[in-house]
Automatic annotation (TrEMBL):
GO cellular component: a single term: cytoplasm
Annotated Mg(2+) 1 binding sites: D96, D216
Stated role: Endonuclease that specifically degrades the RNA of RNA-DNA hybrids.
Gene: rnhA
Keywords: Cytoplasm, Endonuclease, Hydrolase, Magnesium, Manganese, Metal-binding, Nuclease
Highest taxon of the lineage: Bacteria
Subcellular location: Cytoplasm
Catalyzed reaction equations: Endonucleolytic cleavage to 5'-phosphomonoester
EC number: 3.1.26.4
UniProt key word Manganese: yes
Name of the protein this chain belongs to: Ribonuclease H
Residues that bind Mg(2+) 2: E134, D157
Length: 220
């Protein structure tokens, strides 16, 4: 029988995160003053623990294997050294869009990541695209943050919207097919980006690791 994989949470070390081998985790904590780490029997348990207070877990023995102890030390194993995705920043915003067609009826919104409380919702607009909605949601969230002096990060699952944001230009090939209201919103968004810096980090939402974006409309 193959040996069961353990997952190692490092709360304090040279590099924080979740590791799928003891040798990779050990490199982060060995000789590091104040290191905090522990082994878990499942990736789900490790992710939940990493997002919480380490004091709730350090000193508690895992049910399935009491040999892991408080530090999570275990026999090193061969195999992957990949660092697994850390949880998202809870105190942040998430944006998403939904469009029924290309072009089609478009909606987009911003929510608080942890509570999923809606900060704003726009639409429906006729003749929009999903990429346009994702871009507008990002820019309007950043504009709101600058207005309120809010430095919290913003998550999106759209690589295209992030690229347009970096270029300060919505490089859609369907601009002329958009509704007049959406074309006007795009022009305002691009003008804002050209004249306003923003302190917020714009981060990619890891759907594979974390599930659907909290702002997702659930219409897939």
């Amino acid at each position: 029988m193959a040996k069961k994989t353990k997952y190692y949470v490092v709360w304090e070390g040279r590099q924080k995160g979740i590791f799928d081998s003891w040798s990779a985790a050990e490199a982060q904590v060995k000789g590091y003053a104040g290191a905090k780490y522990k082994a878990f029997e499942s990736l789900e348990a490790a992710r939940a623990a990493f997002g919480g207070n380490p004091q709730r877990h350090i000193g508690q023995r895992p049910k399935a294997d009491s040999r892991s102890g408080a530090t999570g030390a275990a026999t090193p194993k061969a195999g992957s050294r990949r660092i697994l995705t850390a949880p998202p920043v809870r105190d942040s915003y998430s944006v998403d869009a939904a469009c029924s067609g290309n072009p089609g009826v478009l909606e987009y919104r911003c929510v608080r990541t942890e509570s999923r409380e809606v900060v704003f919702a726009r639409g429906p607009y006729a003749r929009g695209t999903n990429n346009v909605g994702e871009f507008l949601a990002l820019v309007e969230t950043l504009a709101l943050c600058v207005k309120n002096g809010d430095p919290r990060p913003v998550y999106t699952d759209s690589v295209t919207a992030m690229a347009w944001l970096r270029d300060k230009k919505a490089k859609t090939q369907l601009r002329e097919q958009l509704s007049p209201e959406l074309r006007e919103r795009l022009e305002r968004a691009e003008a804002w980006l050209a004249s306003h810096p923003y302190p917020n980090r714009v981060l990619k939402w890891d759907t594979g690791a974390w599930g659907e974006n909290p702002a997702d409309y659930g219409r897939k």
